[in-house]
Amino acid sequence: MIRFASDSTIKDERDERQLFNRRARIGFLIISLMMLVLLSRYVWLQIFAYDSFSTRSESNRVSVRPVVPNRGMIYDRRGRIIAENEPAYRLEIMPEKVPGKTAGLKALLDELSTLIDLDEDDRASFHRSRTHYRIFDSVPVKFNLSEREVARFAVNRHHLQGADVVPYLSRHYPYGELLTHVLGYTGRLDADDIASVDAGNYRGTRTIGKIGVEQFREKELHGTVGFERVETNASGRVLKVLERQDAIPGNDLVLSIDVAVQTAAWDALGDRPGSVVAIDPADGSLIALVSKPAYDPNAFVHGIGQQAYRDILNASGRPLFNRALSGGYEPGSTLKPFVGLAGLELGLVSAQTRVFSNGEFYIEGYSRPYRDWKDGGHGWVDIKSALEQSVNTYFYQLAMDMGIDRMHDYLSQFGFGAPTGIDVQGEGGGLLPSREWKLAIHEEPWYPGETVIAGIGQGFNVVTPLQLANAVATLVNGGIRYEPRLLYATKQAGIERARPATAPVALQVPVNDQQNWQTILDGMDRVVNGPRGTARGVAVDAHFRTAGKTGTAQVYTLGADKEYEEAEVAQHLRDHALFIAFAPVEAPRIAIAVVVEHGGAGSTNAAPIARATLDAWLDQELQWEPEP
Amino acid sequence: MKGLVPAWVGKPRLDPVLLILIMLIMAFGLFILYSASGPDMAVVERQAIRLGFGIFVMLAISQVPPRILRLWTPWLYGIGIALLLATWILGVGRGTQRWLDIGLLRFQPSEIMKLAVPMMVAWYLHPKVLPPGWKPVFVTLGIMLIPVLLIARQPDLGTSLLVAASGIFTLYLAGLRWRILFGFVGLATAAAPVLWLVMKEYQRDRVRTFLNPEADPLGHGWNIIQSKVAVGSGGLTGKGWLNGTQSHLEFIPERHTDFILAVLSEEFGLVGVTLLMLAYMLLIARGLYIASVARHTGSRLLAGALSLTVFVYVLVNGAMVAGVLPVVGVPLPLISYGGTSAVTLLAGFGMMMSIYGHRKFIK
Predict the structure, then answer these.
(1) Are residues A367 and A330 part of one domain?
(2) Helix (H, G, I), strand (E, B), or coil: what is residue B6?
(3) How many CB pairs under 8 A join A and B?
(4) Residue A627 lies in a domain
(5) Could you tell me which residues are beta bridge partners of residue A188?
(6) Which residue of the set A333, A385, A390, A603 is catalytic?
(7) I want to staple B110 with a disulfide (CB 3.0 to 4.6 A). Which of A86, B20, B131, B151 is the partner?
(8) A571 and A446 in a common domain
(9) CB-CB contact of A261 with A480 (8 Å)
(10) Which tens digits make up the pLDDT trace of A394-434?
(11) For the residues of B327-340, what is the DSSP string, one character each?
């Protein structure tokens, strides 16, 4: 039936009802179809995409969280704690949970700084470190909050959405700057660090050893990460621990350093920049490794501010510089025992060979005089007297007879000119000059005059305090040269007995005649105990007999720091004072090298420091030693 | 007896079929609400009290003869418009002006419009010759658009959509010609870009998010994605009552209000969703049946429009939860937590019952 409704003017109830019924039926049909379409969407989601959504729902529910292992403690040789973990609190922000994006984050930080001491540095480093974290991670803002700050935060927690205060274990160095140049420190784990470690094992770890033992033994100290599978809600709050595998704590380390000896050397150095290295010749273990000035490593643990870092960087005496490991000094007369031994062992001189010292030495055909330190010379001297009185002429003559090539080859056996292989990074190698080296570096031939001054440890020679101490140790234990070791023992968590560490032998210096070695040691004995010894004063009232050798180094330059050092030369024209020693003479228990920068003569400035160090060690050692 | 006693004093006029369907859906809803709220019995009790009040309103209205309702219609509509204007000036609410605070009571005048608009349109078309000519169509559009625009600017897209739909349905059931109907649809499609321009930023965000939720999975896309994960992980039979991890671990936002269907889907699966949808379809079918047996044009149009509007609720909410429509604040009828929309719906069902209960007396 065709209808023209708009034309009609009469209301027809029956027509209208039919119209409505038709419309209602069509309407219901349409909505039924739409309902089917809607349901087909649910069928797709719940049947066809079920697996994928089910997996997503499961991964929503369960998250795996790392359990950070406790870092191993570090003890000194006598069991003193020198690096420990202290309970502390840090402030963290989870940016995703902060309402209001960037503005909200700024507002939150503003609010937090009214409760917690946050300076511009802290904020800047927070923004920098944010980029290294995944979007749902908490980013640390400030470490080591004070108790007041923790309490203030707790009171205001409800309106600080996105921020949290989290307990953690913080590294602490109870001896502060005394051991910085040994232990180094841990600092914030940054992007470069992550690239260098097994990232999986560092999930959740916030700090890593940056230098020193902390860096070198990072693997052992860190331990193995554990994990927990936890059920979390959408805000990341843990509701239930489903499964847990505990972390394996890092190993505890025992270092061979003796804090008492280290302190004695440290105190004896006073305010002067310098270094003391003491080694037990029996096993190559380091008893003391002092570099002064130093700085407080605890400042670095919580992330040092830019300004504070600049202050340390620019402080006088360069506290960041580890003199013991990489300070390059002219050895001066401390090289004489080694040159003398080379002469004896190579058969160039004997113990009885005598040389006349009249105060000046000339190379044939040259007019330049090479002087003795004493006007008019020392007269006839053999090797022992030459060492006792530090007679330059004897060694000028010996060096000329030996030649630079043989001198280089022999001295290199004592570890000069190359890193000793100590178990921390950043060691310098010093310099033991040779014909080849000069040609390669300076593109010049070797001149005879350079051989002459090399014989008394001057010229191109550069040694580090560590090299010097290790060379002394090699000398006194019959030529066994160890790679010096800081690690004394390792103690695994849960195991009662510590596993001792031994220093590897780098080289056994060949011994032609034991007597030659004894002659040199006797000569060094006379330096301290002889009537004309240059270090006579050092042995007064000692309970043990000491042998040594003084040295004076002209202020010198080294490698990359050339310009800086030259600037210092202008300010400080005094020479460096050096002293090497071992004791007791009869059965050496300690070999030592002391350098006092701009200290002047070795005898008066460096030797007393050595004495204080020897006392601190031997007073204990000789007492402790059970008689066999 | 006729004329001596008011008709509504007599035996209660209700439709048992409608009542049973409503009660079934509500009961199911309370079960899901218990799970969605934590579980928290206090929430369920609060909602039960509201629903009880709604049932009371429904039964009360069902006793009022349709003729009285029609008498009130222009007044209700007029008051509704006045209140909407008042909201514009005095409204309270976070970022939007939806609520009117009159002393003890805070309510949304837009809710009144969900009933007042179809009532007004039906009232207006009641004496007209159907299908309506051009003039009645434009008057009807005016009746509808004034409140729709007032509500849309609050802004409350969901409610204005529902109000507009109820008006359009009335026109459709009145026999609006297909040509004109399709013309409107075409016009609305063409107006979509204009709509984009007048939208508030947060509304645009919702549309953008809807088009590509994965672009901002932790921000705006979060609701849609987590809701889909909840639905999808429910599978055929669901994870079981109170076992929905998405809802209990608080991954589903608004889980006891607009997204309660996600909770249902997760815990009862496709079976649960299908059963619920079936219940809604039966409810709508019953509503249309009531309309078809109504004696008067006005009653018929009103009952029909109210029934079809229920479907808009279900469709928009269901599509939003399944991630096929942007997030729009449309509740799942009789199930979502909250009193206002449930009471409005139940009042509508009350009118349908009244129409059904009074169909014989008018003869």
Answers:
(1) yes
(2) coil
(3) 152
(4) no
(5) A207
(6) A333
(7) B151
(8) yes
(9) no
(10) 999 999 999 999 999 999 999 999 999 999 999 999 999 99
(11) ----PPTTTSS-SH
| Domain ranges for chain B | 12-357
Q: Which chain A residues contact residue B273 at CB under 8 A?
A: 39, 42, 46
SS3 A504: coil
Strands of A366-511, DSSP E: 370-371, 379-381, 480-482, 487-491, 499-500, 505-508
Interface ipTM: 0.91
Element (H, E) at A172: strand A163-172
Q: Which of A16, A46, A62, A242 to mutate to test the interface with B (most CBs of B within 10 A)?
A: A46
- Are the C-beta atoms of residues A553 and A329 closer than 8 Å to each other? yes
Active-site annotation holds for A333: yes
Query: A470 and A448, same structural domain?
Result: yes
Query: For residue A166, what is the domain's CATH number?
Result: 3.90.1310.10
User: Considering only CB atoms, which chain B residues are within 8 Å of A135?
Assistant: 218
Are A386 and A293 in a shared domain?
yes
Do A212 and A264 lie in a common domain? no
Q: What share of chain A is helix, strand, coil (3-state, %, to 5)?
A: 45, 20, 35
- The closest of A51, B219, B253, B218 to B262, measured between CA atoms, is B253
Q: What is the pLDDT of residues B269-303, one digit of tens each?
A: 999 999 999 999 999 999 999 999 998 889 999 99
Which residues span the domain enclosing A358? 259-609
Q: What gap in Å lies between CA B71 and CA B58, rounded to an integer?
A: 18
Q: Quick one: A427 and A467 in the same domain? A: yes
Residue A5: per-residue pLDDT:
45
Q: What is the mean pLDDT of residues A263-290?
A: 95
pLDDT tens profile A589-622:
999 999 999 877 767 788 899 999 999 999 888 7
Distance CA A593, CA A390 (A): 17
**Residue A436 Cα distances to A299, A433, A439, B245, angstroms:** 46, 8, 5, 76
Q: What is the pLDDT of residues A21-39, one digit of tens each?
A: 999 999 999 999 999 999 9
In a domain, A615, yes or no: no
Structural domain count of chain A:
3
Q: Which residue of A has its CA nearest to B136?
A: A6
The answer to whether the CB atoms of B231 and A23 lie below 8 A apart is no
What residues are paired with A278 via a beta bridge?
A288, A592
| CATH number of domain containing A284 | 3.40.710.10
Q: Are A221 and A350 within one domain?
A: no
Distance from CA of B7 to the nearest CA of A (A): 24
Inter-chain contact B172–A23, Cβ cutoff 8 Å? yes
Report residue B94 as tokens. 């976070």
End-to-end CA distance of chain A: 130
Q: 3-state SS of chain B: helix, strand, coil percent to 5?
A: 70, 5, 25
How far apart (Å, rounded) are the C-alpha atoms in residues B327 and B257? 13
Helix ranges (DSSP H) in B131-177: 134-152, 157-173
A227 and A303 assigned to the same domain: no
Instruction: Output phi, psi for A119, to 5 deg.
Output: -100, 180
Interface touch B234/A233, C-beta < 8 Å:
no
Indicate whether A628 belongs to any domain: no
The per-residue pLDDT of chain A, averaged, comes to 87
As given in the structure block, the two tokens for residue B46 are 């609060």
* Cβ <8 Å between A24 and B288: yes
CB B282 within 8 A of CB B24: no
Question: Mind telling me how many Å the CA of A64 is from chain B's nearest CA?
Answer: 16
**d(C-alpha A384, C-alpha A363), whole Å:** 24
Please check the confidence at residue B211 and state whether its pLDDT lies above 80.
Answer: no
Q: What is the pLDDT of residues A97-154, one digit of tens each?
A: 777 767 888 888 888 888 888 888 788 878 877 776 655 567 888 888 888 989 998 8
Residue A623, domain member (yes or no): no
Q: Which of the pair, A113 or A96, is modelled with greater confidence?
A: A113
- Of B172 and B98, more confident: B172
